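> forwarded from #structure-qc
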């Protein structure tokens, strides 16, 4: 029997919070892994945060313990005073979980699970802009910060927007095997299936909030060639400044020297490979270290700015 996945849609939902995981399960079904998708709401049409109307059915299908309810997130970075859902909807979420089913959320969808009482005593996460608010709203929950998703007793919560894809791929892997999830990811042209404890923000994002055009251009070079041996002189020549000027401007903009930034990218990628079963030695070679000693040193401490 196929696994039924019910998306419970709330007003102002984010399109990608819905479309990302829906695409994963739809693609899995296309590949023969058996998923049946249903979209339910408390009104026949939901207007998304992006202004696109989405049709949904009002009647809930019959669900079994192998089935899944997913609540996509809605307009952030702040929660609404209360989730726009009825007492009956909260009961539906609680009853499905009590009957042995799984319930998941993307981004601010965790608020709906909290309102249904499903976060109490459980580990959970949400978008990094919402973690403090969610923790304050549901003090009995155990907030896990800066991770992609958390699984606790068939309650699965994920971070914002694109992390819904990671969550859905994890659920496909858990139910149908890692090969199935890999096939889905490849079909969707997803670069890599990330683990739940991977950080929400990659180094490429954390150090891109500045307004220095020169630093961004240098980062573009390093991002695309982080495994190569990049000489400071070549980076400086590539953007038309002296090595001293490059170092000064880059450090002012990012808080890191070019070398430290490259090391951070290498370390982050190596950690991802190791978390998926690659040996430290193989991961070191893959990201450009001559041997594993430097990688081990970097893993044992925080890279200073």
């Amino acid at each position: 029997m196929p696994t039924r996945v019910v998306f419970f849609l709330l007003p102002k939902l984010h399109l990608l919070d819905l479309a990302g995981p829906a695409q994963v399960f739809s693609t899995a079904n296309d590949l023969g892994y058996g998923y049946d998708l249903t979209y339910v709401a408390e009104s026949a049409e939901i207007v998304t945060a992006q202004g696109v109307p989405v049709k949904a059915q009002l009647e809930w299908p019959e669900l079994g313990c192998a089935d899944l309810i997913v609540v996509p997130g809605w307009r952030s970075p702040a929660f609404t005073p209360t989730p726009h859902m009825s007492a009956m909807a909260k009961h539906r979420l609680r009853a499905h979980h009590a009957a042995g089913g799984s319930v998941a959320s993307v981004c601010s969808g965790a608020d709906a699970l909290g309102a249904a009482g499903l976060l109490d005593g459980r580990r959970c996460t949400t978008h990094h802009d919402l973690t403090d608010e969610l923790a304050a709203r549901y003090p009995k929950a155990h907030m896990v910060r800066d991770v992609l998703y958390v699984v606790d007793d068939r309650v699965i919560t994920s971070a914002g927007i694109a992390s819904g894809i990671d969550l859905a791929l994890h659920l496909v892997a858990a139910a149908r095997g890692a090969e199935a999830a890999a096939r889905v990811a490849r079909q969707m042209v997803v670069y890599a299936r990330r683990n739940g404890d991977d950080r929400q923000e990659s180094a490429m994002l954390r150090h891109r909030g500045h307004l220095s055009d020169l630093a961004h251009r240098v980062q573009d070079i390093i991002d695309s060639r982080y495994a190569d041996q990049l000489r400071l002189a070549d980076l400086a020549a590539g953007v038309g400044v002296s090595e001293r000027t490059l170092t000064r401007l880059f450090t002012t903009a990012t808080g890191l020297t070019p070398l430290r930034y490259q090391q951070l990218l290498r370390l982050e990628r190596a950690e991802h490979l190791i978390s998926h079963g690659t040996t430290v030695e193989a991961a070191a070679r893959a990201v450009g270290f001559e041997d594993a000693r430097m990688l081990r040193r970097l893993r044992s401490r925080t890279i200073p700015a």
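QC bot note: Strands lie at 3-9, 35-41, 45-47, 53-55, 68-71, 102-106, 123-124, 142-143, 149-152, 155-158. The chain has a mean pLDDT of 89.
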